[in-house]
Amino acid sequence: MDFLIPFFTDDFLGKPAWVWLTFVGIVIALLAFDLGVLHKDDKEIGVRESLLLSAGYISVALLFGAWVWWFLGAQSGMDYYTGFMIEKSLSMDNVFVIALIFSFFAIPRQYQHRVLGSLLSPSPHDTADLAALARRSRCRPGRAVVDAGHSTSPQLGCV
């Protein structure tokens, strides 16, 4: 087991690999809990339940940020909270787009959570999941274009 120690302690994107693995583990555990335990049945999610779930997930994120601040220092903590606030702000437009898509396709409220879950965990046995997988595969070339330089960003913004 000593051969694994360098793997977990080596830097990956400026932080030890075990920090990233912890973060990914928390995200996967929360997704599994949400999709596999809380919402395994098709039911309509009310406003109260939605607000409670959001508050719970935001609390987990804020607690993780406090741990980052305490364990990795103020600069890393501030970087985390800055990224969290930016992503939270940017995710709000996704809520409106998803609402428009759901209303356009007339997806019943009790199935909306399942549809969102299928976008997060594609299964090759489901055609809707295959469409989501195809959509994700189109994002990779776009990301490569953006990574190539800033001169492409205005053109992509117009699209």
From TrEMBL:
Entries under InterPro entries matching the protein: Integral_membrane_TerC (IPR005496)
Location (main, coarse): membrane
Superkingdom of this protein's organism: Bacteria
Membrane topology qualifier: Multi-pass membrane protein
Compartment(s): Membrane
Transmembrane segments: 17-38, 50-70, 90-107
This protein's UniProt keywords: Membrane, Transmembrane, Transmembrane helix
Keyword Membrane: yes
Protein family: Belongs to the TerC family.
UniProt-recorded name of the protein: Tellurite resistance protein TerC
